Amino acid sequence: VALYDDNGISIDGAVEGWFGDDTPARFRACGWRVIGPIDGHDLAALDAAIASAKQPSGKPTLIVCRTTIGAGAPTRGGSAKAHGEPLGADEIAATRQALGWNHPPFEIPAEIRAQWDARASGARRQGEWQARFNAYRSEFPELAAEFERRMSGALPDDWQDLRASVLEQFAQATENVATRKASQQVLALLGPRLHELLGGSADLTGSNLTDFPDAGPRHIHYGVREFGMAAIMNGVALHGGWIPYGGTFLTFSDYSRNAIRMAALMKLRVVHVFTHDSIGLGEDGPTHQSVEHAASLRLIPNLEVWRPCDAAETALAWTAALDALHMPSALLLSRQALPAQTRSVEQTQAIARGGYVLSEPAGARATLLATGSEVGLAMRAQQLLAQQGIAVRVVSLPSVTRFDRQDAAYRATVLGTLPRIGVEAGVTRWWGQYGCVAALGVDSFGESAPAPAVFEYFGLTAAKLVETVRGVLDA
């Protein structure tokens, strides 16, 4: 039940003349039941409307309430001044007189307090509900325990084993695979075991790969509604009992951004699957090619951003997102296939810290910092430089937001003391915070062409990275 306060006033003044929406008709067209307009100051009319709205109809209900903003204020009522400005001492005194309100500020008369005090009735209703639930628990103990677990946000008792199994399986992956595909492979293992996973896509399931076998009603077709999807995910997370995730292209995160920010502010566990994360998208061109989006999302407080380079990092990103009870996560995934990297057990474990040394040859003269699809590029550049007698370290940073929370000693060890060069298929300015003396990236909008041609056009190649490193060392 939603009450629509239709007072005809905005901060800019009366809406007549520029707000021509037929709001009740719009809600009816969306399948809502609409009651009113009613007099929003008539308590009997409000009570009757709310009672009617509570009757089963199979639809949500909108109650249209015609009101006067600031009702009772002699000179401010019905005006924009009642919306965005304090009434002021004189108007407050006049309003008190007009309303016949003679009580001091913050004093609630006993008879009014008694009418609004719902503690006793609330305790009674809670007790009645608890009695019904206790009876349910007696008859269905396993289902009751599962309900309580899911509503608490705790993961299943076997989660640690499931997580370890998933991470072990993908740690050994050798296939070159797009990280969006790796994400789907992870979901294929997690979805059937974690019944609270509730996913979907904003009309891009075949591209985001957010489905899993036998998902059934646990996969939602949101349509082309990125913000709606993100907002619904927030609502589902606030309700509890589900872990929502949703997919779209990274560039369309702009449409979702306010809801993403609110999820971070409210500390909600939601997972945004953002695929086609760079100019590697290819032919769809600059409108669809993310450039500034990764750096921009990393600026949102309490949002964990992952940009994995292969299946092993993707699996870790997913499990970390599910572990993050009070934090939303954004998984930035590639359209194109990426090479699987070889790691020791220690390196695989270090993925969870958001950044780690992937390769450290003896006699290194510089450090390459890379994320996502550019980790493979950095490894190829390392090989080319080695052929020229120049050794360089390679650091993978799948989640700089998590890496930044590591202790200073660990971060210093990973970053090292050698000259640093950053590489990511996006804007380069943000590399300065890691002391990079040079960076390779994309500081303009993209172009429409096959992905390899776009990477070549923007100089995101191993040869160009070699040239950049040599320029730093020769300076």
Automatic annotation (TrEMBL):
Start and end residues of each Transketolase-like pyrimidine-binding domain? 177-340
**Gene3D superfamilies, per this entry?**
3.40.50.920, 3.40.50.970
InterPro entries recorded: THDP-binding, Transketo_C/PFOR_II, Transketolase-like_C_2, Transketolase-like_Pyr-bd, Transketolase_fam, Transketolase_N
Q: Name one GO molecular function term.
A: metal ion binding
Example GO biological process:
pentose-phosphate shunt
Q: What class of enzyme is it?
A: transferase
Cofactor(s) required for function per UniProt: thiamine diphosphate; Mg(2+)
Q: Does the keyword Metal-binding apply?
A: yes
Question: Keywords in UniProt for this one?
Answer: Magnesium, Metal-binding, Thiamine pyrophosphate, Transferase
List the catalytic activities from the record.
Answer: D-sedoheptulose 7-phosphate + D-glyceraldehyde 3-phosphate = aldehydo-D-ribose 5-phosphate + D-xylulose 5-phosphate
Q: Which CDD domains match?
A: TPP_PYR_DXS_TK_like
What Enzyme Commission number does this protein have? 2.2.1.1
Cellular component (GO) terms are: cytosol
Report which residue ranges the record marks as coiled coil. none
Regarding protein family, the annotation reads:
Belongs to the transketolase family.
Entry protein name: transketolase
> Which species is the source of this protein?
mine drainage metagenome
